[in-house]
Amino acid sequence: MPVEQSGGQITLKHPKGASAEILLYGATVISWKVADKQHPEPFERLFVSSKALLDGSKPVRGGIPVVFPCFGAPTHPDHSRLSQHGFARSEVWKWDGLVMDNEAGVSVRLTLEPTSKITAVYSKPFHLTYVVTLAEHQLSTDLHVKNASTSDILEFQALFHNYIRVPSSNDVLIHPLQNLRYFDKTDPVHQGLKTETRTGVDVKKSTDSVYEDAPQNYQVTWPGGGVKLRSVNLKDVVVWNPQKEVGSKIGDMEDGGWERYVCLEPGYVRGFEKVEPGKTWIGQQVLSAIREEGGTNL
Questions:
Q1: 194-195 and 207-211: which strand pairing?
Q2: Using H for helix, E for strand and C for coil, what is the string for 50-68?
Q3: Which residues, 6 or more positions from 122, have their beta carbon under 8 angstroms from its beta carbon?
Q4: What is the spatial distance between Cα 160 and Cα 146, in angstroms, rounded to a whole number?
Q5: Tens digit of pLDDT for each residue in 10-38?
Q6: What is the pLDDT of residues 38-76, one digit of tens each?
Q7: What is the CA radius of gyration of the chain?
Q8: Judging by beta carbons within 10 Å of its beta carbon (0-12, 13-18, 19+), is residue 77 exposed, middle or buried?
Q9: Cut 0.85: pTM above it
C-alpha cells in the first residue's frame, strides 16, 4: 500500500523507493527519503533532532513544521494572544483522505479548523487544508488557507519551516540570494534592511536572515549533494542556522545538531497576506533532490 497509517503517523511510499512520514500533530513532515545518482538507495533529506518530542507535547524540532497564522513573535492585533509561529504546528490535524495514487506519485490531505483551544486565543474563522505529495524525486507541500468569514478579511502569515539535512559547517551554499534585501535578526545594532552581496550564502556563523521578495526558486548545494526548492505565493525566504553559540542553548536540539542542517523556509512573512471572505489562498513548495553533483537535475 502506498499509504500506511499507524496511530498519529502517516507513511507515504513510492514504488521507485522514495518515502515520506507525516505526523497528524502539527501536520509535520518528519522524514523524506529519496535516492540520487551518487546514492542509489533512498536516504534521509530532512533533519529531526534526536531530542525532538514527537508525542504532541511541543512543536517538533525538525522536519517541516507548518507556520500559521504568524511568523515569529506575533505583531498583528489579531494574533496578540498567540505564541511564536502560531498554532498550526502544535495542533492535531484531521486525516481527510487520499488525493492521488498513480504512477506519478501519492498524495494525501489533512485539515485543521477552529477548536475550542484555538478560539480561546484566535477568533478568526478559517479552514486549513494541507496536501502532501510524494513523487519519485520530489516532495511537495500545499497549504490552502480559506477565509471562512462572510464579512471580514483574513490577514495572516504562513511559512514552511524546512530543516534540510546538510553538512552545514562545510561548504553548503544557498543561492540565488545575491542583491536581495534582507532583515538580519542576529544583528541587534543595525535593524534596517541589508543587501545580500554573496553569490552563495553560507551558515558558518549564526544566521537568521529574512529575505524579501525572493525569486521563489533556490538551491542548497554541498560537495556531492543538493536540494532544489521552488515555491508559489511565498514571496519571502528565511535562512536559519543557530550554530553552537545559540544552538547549544536550545533544549530540544541534539548536541552538534546545528552542524547537520540548514533551514531554508519559504513563506509570506514580511507583511501580511490578505484573503477576502469566502476566498482561498494557496502557498506551495516543491523540494527536489539534485541527482548529479554540480547542481544539475537530470
A1: unpaired
A2: CCCCCCCCCCCCECECEEE
A3: 69, 78, 79, 81, 82, 87, 114
A4: 17
A5: 999 999 999 999 999 999 999 999 988 77
A6: 778 999 999 999 999 988 889 999 999 999 999 999 999
A7: 18
A8: exposed
A9: yes
